[in-house]
Amino acid sequence: xxxxxxxxxxxxxxxxxxxxxxxxxxxxxxxxxxxxxxxxxxxxxxxxxxxxxxxxxxxxxxxxxxxxxxxxxxxxxxxxxxxxxxxxxxxxxxxxxxxxxxxxxxxxxxxxxxxxxxxxxxxxxxxxxxxxxxxxxxxxxxxxxxxxxxxxxxxxxxxxxxxxxxxxxxxxxxxxxxxxxxxxxxxxxxxxxxxxxxxxxxxxxxxxxxxxxxxxxxxxxxxxxxxxxxxxxxxxxxxxxxxxxxxxxxxxxxxxxxxxxxxxxxxxxxxxxxxxxxxxxxxxxxxxxxxxxxxxxxxxxxxxxxxxxxxxxxxxxxxxxxxxxxxxxxxxxxxxxxxxxxxxxxxxxxxxxxxxxxxxxxxxxxxxxxxxxxxxxxxxxxxxxxxxxxxxxxxxxxxxxxxxxxxxxxxxxxxxxxxxxxxxxxxxxxxxxxxxxxxxxxxxxxxxxxxxxxxxxxxxxxxxxxxxxxxxxxxxxxxxxxxxxxxxxxxxxxxxxxxxxxxxxxxxxxxxxxxxxxxxxxxxxxxxxxxxxxxxxxxxxxxxxxxxxxxxxxxxxxxxxxxxxxxxxxxxxxxxxxxxxxxxxxxxxxxxxxxxxxxxxxxxxxxxxxxxxxxxxxxxxxxxxxxxxxxxxxxxxxxxxxxxxxxxxxxxxxxxxxxxxxxxxxxxxxxxxxxxxxxxxxxxxxxxxxxxxxxxxxxxxxxxxxxxxxxxxxxxxxxxxxxxxxxxxxxxxxxxxxxxxxxxxxxxxxxxxxxxxxxxxxxxxxxxxxxxxxxxxxxxxxxxxxxxxxxxxxxxxxxxxxxxxxxxxxxxxxxxxxxxxxxxxxxxxxxxxxxxxxxxxxxxxxxxxxxxxxxxxxxxxxxxxxxxxxxxxxxxxxxxxxxx
Length: 884
Ligand code: SER
Description:
By secondary structure, the protein is an alpha+beta fold. The protein folds into six domains: 4-246, BirA Bifunctional Protein, domain 2 (2-Layer Sandwich); 247-360; 376-426, no CATH class; 442-551, Elongation Factor Tu (Ef-tu), domain 3 (Beta Barrel); 566-718, Threonyl-tRNA Synthetase, Chain A, domain 2 (2-Layer Sandwich), CATH 3.30.980.10; 762-883, Diaminopimelate Epimerase, Chain A, domain 1 (Roll). It is 38% helix and 25% strand. It has 23 helices and 33 strands. Strands 1, 2, 3, 4, 5, 6, 7, 8 and 9 form a nine-stranded mixed beta sheet that branches. A six-stranded antiparallel beta barrel has the order 11-14-18-17-16-20. A hairpin with a 2-residue loop joins β26 and β27. The longest helix is centred in the middle third of the chain and has 31 residues, at 345-375.
């Protein structure tokens, strides 16, 4: 009996042997389709190959694709647990031809696969074809030798496959397996077709058309093949059952659920175990592919599935959160085929535990409220919309959870009433918000968020995605279209562009489609809406247009490196300076990073160097950067660093990097840096490349600022610095290594020379070089007075000269006037013994007054002043003399 894992391998190997490329499953969140919530079949990732918009170096492919059908066109959520074959998550095996083979080979391969490779009894099979597809019917007859009654023509869209409301599509042909007449049901097309006896196992789609928004279709450039086989159904029949939940893989999960709750897998809790097993798969795979529980969009679908599972956990009587404990079983079953599951195991477990812990707190009270409501209702009537809304609003019950709970009691919900209550609440919230003092400007974004929901951010995982334009805004108002030359704000339903926040700058890049192009110069974020500021360079953009968005990858990777380097820097500072270091602001731009933090004094050179060295050591450590989701409290308990000024919701994203033994961080082991952060980061610390600090400065009181570079910019900086040193060395004519000593020697030499020059100047002045009058002291009222006009010296030289003269005369007063290039400098000195009798200040002031100057000052024994010119030097000397 082949296991499900065996079947997957056999299928892929068979098609590989027939020249098909084995292509890995694409992520559940489609990058290449803005209209699709989740990958819902194998062909999704090949959509553009069918339409001819893209080509690859293979024209036939095979894959095992992860699929989720829980929202959008194909939604199976409500049936899960109650039927044998519905799942929110399943795997689809498929083979694809892109303009290579068509119906003939597709049918041949499928028949071989089913009857030879898998050994399914041909007598148990019937096929369907689209009612007018004579060609397919004839091929089946020839290839399989099936009688006419086993080739059933179907006129409904059961045999016309469409991925969504638009895209490639075509007539299909399905293979059914007859489980036997012990099970009720009839062949496809019969009144009993809904029974479980005949089960569709494989759908072969003959891709022929592309369907457009307006409902029109045009033929595809190449006829192609898309097939999808539900692996769970095939496993069931090969394992002798018609119940997918009895197959080896899903049964293992059911048993894990039964063991963990000490209940009977097939007892009264049977349905609960089935729901849990199914939902465990979809929730785990969605989380692994980057979806996080939230209140709208994909995140809300995830939350609905999680909460639905959790109600069934509750119904099993489990007291503690359960789902996360089942993840190891799932990884054991599917981790080999889907490595992303194991890689994200910790994130999946934490996300499930968190959601279940929080939801548990309100689940019981909500269920009690529901019971109370039902008590008051007449038999068979639906639950009023208001009550369902209260459950939603106060207890976090998604509508389908309430519906699921009522289903067991044979009741429904007035969903129109629910919608009305929801609309009413939104209007109230909006009114409150617009009165909150936020700028009027922002209300337009709130309107858009109200109408279209928050933008789905895909940029943690990708830099390219397709999206649909949901709004174009110009000068604060929504417009229908914008054309070349316009600068507008573009909103799309999903985007890889990061909107500026948390210090990380917004992304730039391009938005384009056939005949359309716009340059995105910045991206912002308001009310959950991502705003792409774009200059249109080609064509006319319209609301509703499907476009491709490409983030400038080089710039983004520089930003990522700087942001991750900032986290390492933060931790290195804390470790070096102490726990008082807290982030006070930051900038993560492509060309540099800036980090402001609380710390009282400048860092010493030693501290700067050791912090820089530590950051580089963690870069070289090259460990993976991980992201987790937890409550803010849990995060803080682990010692995560919270960002300054950020508001946190119920759940936070925690980014960890670096391994350090004994960090004491509990379940996060030896994480070095742990921060709450919504930004984008490198995959491994080694991707940062290098880190260089440009220095530290004061940002404001008690806050220091470090500016630094990473990656190529750090290398460029070091190269430039090195170039400068080489230049200095070459000017000095010395090896670079000797340059500092050489510069120091030159500085010393220069100082000695300067002293020598000053000394020579004084000597020159005193010895009368160029002087007219030789200095001679005269007696004025019993005080020796020496006055002289000197040239070739500056005002700065005068005090030393005055001192020389004071020493020469021994006792008395000295007045010197320097004729300094059109200006006069004056200095006077009085020896200590005469200081009581005469003040040098008075002498200077008297002289200065005659020289066209003002004031003058100093001490009684030494004073200085200046004048406009030395022309009146004689009068100045006379005036000073008069003071004595
Ligand atoms: N796209 C088709 C399906 O989902 C065949 O793969 O059934």
